[in-house]
Each structure stands twice: as C-alpha cells, then as structure tokens.
Write a structure and sequence with these properties.
Number of domains: 1
Helix content: 55-70%
CATH class: Alpha Beta
Radius of gyration: 18 Å
CATH architecture: 3-Layer(aba) Sandwich
Number of helices: 11
Structural class: alpha/beta
Number of strands: 4
Strand content: 5-15%
Distance between the termini: 54 Å
Largest sheet: 4 strands, parallel
C-alpha cells in the first residue's frame, strides 16, 4: 500500500498539527533523519519562524558569528518545538515577516493553498504572541540589516569578524545547509530564497489572488503581524552591522 501523501496542504497540516504537542514532537523526532533540528536538553538556542521568514539566514548568521560553537535547533516551523524550548528554559528567537512576503513565498515554494497558508500563519504567530514573554521576537528586516547585532543581543558578545567576505561566507553556509537538508549533491534553486524576476512575478500574482479571494484572512494576518512588532527587539537606533 502506498501511503505517500501528495497534497501539500495535508502534508503541512499533519506536520503542524502533530508537531503542536509533546507526544507529536517525540514521534516526529523518531521518524526524522535530522534530529538536531528538534530542541533537546543540549540545545543552546532555538531559531524558529514561519516558513520563508529568514530562518536559514538567521541560522547561517549564528554559525558565522559564533564560529559554529553552539547547538542550534531550528527549521521545524512547529509550535511544539517552541513549547519544548520554553519548558526547558532555552533561548528562543522567532523571526517575524509580513504575511505578504512570507505567505506568498511559502505558497510559491511548497504549492500549498492560500487559505491553508494564511491559516497556518495566524495559528503560528498567535501562539508566539501569547508566549511573547518567553521569546525574543526579531523582525525580518532587522535580521537582514543587523545580523551581528541580533546574535550579540542573544549572547551578549562582541566578536569582531571580517565583513569583506560576509556575503560570500553566508552564501556558502546557506548552500551547505541546503545540501544537508535535501541530501542531494546539487542546490535546488527553487528552495533557496534567491531573489529573481520570475520569483517576484509569482509572488505578486499570489498576493493579487489573496487580495481578491481571501482579503479578510489576509487582513487578520497583517493585524497579527503588526501586534507582534510591538514586542520585537528594537534595532531602530542601531548602526548597520
């Protein structure tokens, strides 16, 4: 019997639903070949976020600035992973990105429906909002413009690194993480968030469709995002990293 699930909505619904509970996290971890993504007693920090919110860039920045010296859990995109980190009193970083970009990037990459993507966005971020006192919320744009300060905020460090090779080194780390994730020998271009005219056109069509068909749900997502920004770590008066 073939138990492969080909519907992206069902795949992600099962993953996010099962991953919301402790027993579900345990079952997913037993099945996963990437057990280091799950929070454990040995984790130093959890980096999480809705898909397509800068999770890989954040992980690469921590690896770069901390010389790969930490046990970092990340990329599960599950409420249960955050719950476990809070319960174990780990440092928790959650990146938040506006729904227009993150939801449409998620739809373009994973082929999920707009209704599912917006529902998932709301569920994930409402949990973050309710547990904000245990989480450091980082705005996507702040992460991109101030990666060193984001890392320093978490670990109170001030390590000088050469910036002339930063973009190159980050790209190398991101590519190595992608190869590790896929198990392949070449980069899946559709899975690495490299801006392109083609990708931007797809995202714009996606947003236009959300505006036309799911405007109420999109407005709820945008409202939740604005609420989260009220509790983010503020880097407005910080010079560029």
């Amino acid at each position: 019997m073939n138990l492969t699930i080909n519907n992206p909505d069902i795949k992600w619904w099962l993953k996010s639903s099962i991953g919301s509970f402790a027993i579900g996290q345990h079952l997913l971890m037993l099945k996963s070949r990437k057990k280091d993504l799950f929070v454990s007693k040995n984790s130093d920090v959890l980096i999480e976020g809705f898909p397509r919110s800068g999770n890989t860039f954040a992980l690469a920045s921590f690896i770069y600035f901390l010389n790969n010296s930490l046990n970092i859990s990340s990329h599960r995109h599950e409420i249960g992973n955050i719950k476990r980190a809070i319960r174990l009193k780990k440092k928790v970083l959650v990146i938040v990105r506006n729904p227009r970009d993150s939801v449409c990037s998620f739809i373009v990459r994973e082929k999920v429906s707009g209704r599912f993507a917006l529902g998932f966005y709301l569920k994930f971020h409402k949990f973050v909002l309710m547990n904000r006192h245990h989480i450091k919320i980082i705005k996507f744009e702040d992460l991109i413009h101030h990666p060193k300060h984001v890392v320093n905020t978490f670990f109170n460090i001030d390590r000088d690194r050469e910036w002339k090779d930063f973009n190159y080194e980050i790209n190398q780390i991101v590519n190595s993480l992608e190869l590790k994730d896929s198990g392949l020998k070449s980069i899946r271009e559709d899975f690495v968030a490299i801006p392109s005219k083609k990708r931007n056109r797809k995202k714009q069509r996606c947003f236009d469709q959300l505006e036309a068909d799911l405007k109420h749900e999109l407005e709820k997502a945008e409202k939740t995002y604005q609420q989260l920004l009220e509790y983010r770590v503020n880097f407005e008066n910080t010079s560029p990293s």
